[in-house]
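SAMPLE LOG
Freezer: B-3
Tube label: C17
Construct: single chain, 268 aa
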Amino acid sequence: MPPYKISAAATPQVPIVISVPHCGTAFPDELKDQYEPSLISAPDDTDWFVDQLYDFAPAMGMTMISAVYSRWVIDLNRDPQSKPLYTDGRIITGLCPTTDFLGKSLYGDQRTEVEKKEVERRLQAYYWPYHQKIGELLDDLKSKFGKVLLWDCHSIRQVVPTIQQEKFPDLILGSADQTSAQQTLIDTALKNLESARYSLQHNHPFKGGFITRNFGKPGEQQHALQLEMSKVNYMDDAELRYDNIRADRMREVLRSTLRSLADQLMSK
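STRUCTURE (predicted):
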């Protein structure tokens, strides 16, 4: 099956594509026996329910692409050449990770790396199709509207000590140090996100992964922004279950932000 799902715009299109690269939980049949069964039954590093959180997007005229396979198979938001996204000493899982965020081995044989030939196979089978589809969706919208925005959606546990000791803020907007999108779009996103009850930071501790940095080309009227959020904003305190009350509160903020961005993109 394709390594992505597409939820097409259900109303007249607006020039925004929603990407959810870390919501996948499946493992290909040819690989699943290699992993620790207790881990892949509920892969902990998943951006749980983020596709559900954004499932309002098609009704707003936005197409959504979401991952099918777990990031433990291959991480769709890492550099395909395995170049590190950050160099500040934090632990960063690899393109084809062998440990989770806390350093626990994922494979039954305790391997410390995935062979180069297998990495290349996974790139061709799972990674590039997702990226190529994003490119097609962006091209189609840019040809129609003259400009387009990719909104890349992520979530993370409130505390991940291998990245930083203190709690993460509620929301973190990433713009690759203000290079992946036009400043006016960044300002619109920040203004809307700041108006809510959530704590917000910009480009710290996350500035956007490979998807944001690769597809963000504001000089070509192709913009990209990443929104990271702490899972407790839409899940329960244990970060295990979807919490409808918290999620509905967050969805209103997301709707408002995306509506403002769409209006700006479509204004002359």
